[in-house]
Amino acid sequence: TLFNYNLLLILKQWYQRRVRGKAEVVEAFITQKEAQIAATSGVGGDLASCEVLINRHTNLISSLASFGDTIEALTELQERLTAAQHAQSRAIKQRHTDVMKRWNKLVAESEARKKRLASAHAHFVDIEKLFQGFAAKASQFNGWYENAEEDLTEIIYTSSMEECRGLREDHSDFVDTLSQVKRDEFRGLLELDKQIRAYHVSVNPYTWFTMDAIEDSWQNLLRMVKERDLMIEKETLRQTQNEELRKAYAGQANKFHEWLVQTKGLLTNTKLGLEEQRDLIGRKHEEIKKKRAVLKEIEELSSHLEQAMVFDNRYTTHSALTLAQQWDQLNEFTRRMHHTVQDQIEALSRTGVDEDELKEFTLMFKHFDKDRSGRLDHPEFKACLRSLGFDLPVPAEGEPDTAFEAILDYVDRDRDGFVRLEEYMQFMISRTTENVTGTDELTEAFRALTEGGDKPYITATELYSAMPTDQAKYCIDRMEKYPDVPGALDYTNFTKSIFQLNTSITSG
Fold first, then answer.
1. Which end of the chain, N or C, is surrounded by fewer C-beta atoms within 10 Å?
2. Which residues face 312 on adjacent strands?
3. Which candidate, 336, 416, 429, places its Cα nearest to that of 377?
4. Can you tell me the distance from the alpha carbon of 141 to that of 186, in angstroms, rounded to the nearest whole number?
């Protein structure tokens, strides 16, 4: 009917407008996406920019997938009009074909770009791994290099051959590590750098270290190793010389100390007669003086050790200073012993003391001289006197020991706390003297020594002329000056003081 015909015509026109509209929408969409793909045809210069492009392209693919419904709707409309034999069917079909051709091309280009981006991404991932691997190894190598540089340039100073030997062993271990492990690490860095260069990329974003810088560090390290070898060799030579110096010093020092001990032991333990003792002491005293040259050699060796900054010596415990002090003590001890023995010999001829008594005095002194120092402290001296029969009463608590103090006034006038052998022997001889019986006789004896035989004073010259040197010195040291006469000494008061001492001892 006419109505049905008109209705069909209206539907065909409506479908035609729908097809035209859909086609225009699709064409506009395709044009936009083609422009988008054309604008971002590159794959980026690195992983980050490539991933940005991948994200954008992923969004494009998503939009294409979402636009698929519109494509299907356009196809459906085209098929309906064609089936209805629309007057413009051929034109509609051709337009649909052109649109689909562009659509399929867009999808194909999108897929191709996806593959290109995926391939580029894999490429950049490989580069990134190489960058990161090189950066990690380069940082590790540089840290090791800085520590090694610090160790290799550290000033070398050792104090013994053991320390020097340990230093040499540590350096040898380091060189072994350098030639094996670290050389392999260095070669690994070279291989990584070669692979990175093959990708024709420039800057590693993960490190400022370059292979050129690392190669410079490696060459510098090899140079420092050679310099360290020379430094250790020089230090080894220095310690070898120091060790020889230690042994040379120790050899002389130990031998000299042994001689000191033997000599003192010989002098303190002799059982010879007085004259034989005097001769022995005289010979030993000359030997002691000659040994001063040996001591000087030891002191020179000690000076060389100090100049070499060597302050330890495992081969000896004897320092040059201690040996010099011991030599001085032995020299002084021998000199005093010689004077003491000479006094004893002279006492035999002018007093009632016989040699057996002198030996007894000497043996008793040595018995209480436990440390063989040639002197007794006050408690040792008091014990010695009591052993010899002196009656020294024990004073009441808080009371002075007057008897013992009177003896000390005679034998330890300087009150240094010690009584030496010669002081002890002079005291014992004077205590047992029987040749002089009173002050008057002794006073007359001194007067007879003066010029004219009648002066109340005497001079040092007159005493030295008439008496042995040590006895004259003993008197001079203890006589007071005679008033108003220069150089004159008061022998009268000196005589009284001697007998006052003897009286106080006897009464004690």
1. N
2. none
3. 416
4. 8
For residue 366, with 0-12 CB atoms within 10 Å meaning exposed, 13-18 middle and 19 or more buried, which class applies? middle
Residue-wise pLDDT for 407-437, tens only, equals 888 888 878 888 887 788 778 877 765 444 4
SS3 418: strand
List the 458-459 sheet strands across, edge first.
458-459, 488-490, 480-481
The angle, 0 to 180 degrees and rounded to 10, between the axes of the packed helices 47-66 and 89-153 is 160
- How far apart CA 436 and CA 443 sit, in angstroms, is 10
Three-state secondary structure call for residue 201: coil
Tokens 């991933």 appear where?
51
Query: Can you say how many angstroms the Cα of residue 89 is from the centroid of all Cα atoms in its chain?
Result: 104
Cβ of 254: how many Cβ atoms within 10 Å?
Answer: 14
Q: Tokens 């693919």 correspond to what residue?
A: 61
- How far CA 284 is from CA of 262, 281, 495, in Å, comes to 11, 5, 37
Is the backbone of residue 459 left (phi > 0), alpha (psi -120 to 50) or beta? beta
The residues, ordered by sequence, that sit 6+ positions from 405 with a Cβ below 8 Å of its Cβ are none
Residues 6+ apart with CB under 8 A from 386: 392
Pick the closest to residue 476 from 487, 460, 455, 494 (CA basis): 460
Closest CA to 493 of 505, 475, 506: 475
Distance CA 508, CA 504 (A): 6
pTM: predicted TM-score of the whole model, two decimal places: 0.51
Q: Show the DSSP H helices in 178-291 as ranges.
A: 183-198, 211-268, 274-290
Euclidean distance between CA atoms 439 and 297, whole angstroms: 55
Q: What is the pLDDT of residues 199-238, one digit of tens each?
A: 888 788 889 899 999 999 999 999 999 999 999 999 999 9
334, 342, 358: which is closest to 276 by C-alpha? 342
Per the CB < 8 A criterion, the answer to whether 211 and 142 are in contact is no
Residue labelled with tokens 């005095």: 361
Compute the distance between CA of residue 28 and CA of residue 41 in angstroms, rounded to an integer. Answer: 20
Angle at 281 (CA atoms; ends 280, 286), nearest 5 degrees? 100
Q: What is the dihedral of CA 455, 459, 461, 464, to 10 degrees?
A: 90
Q: How many residues does this entry show for the chain?
A: 508
Residue 477 structure tokens: 């040291």
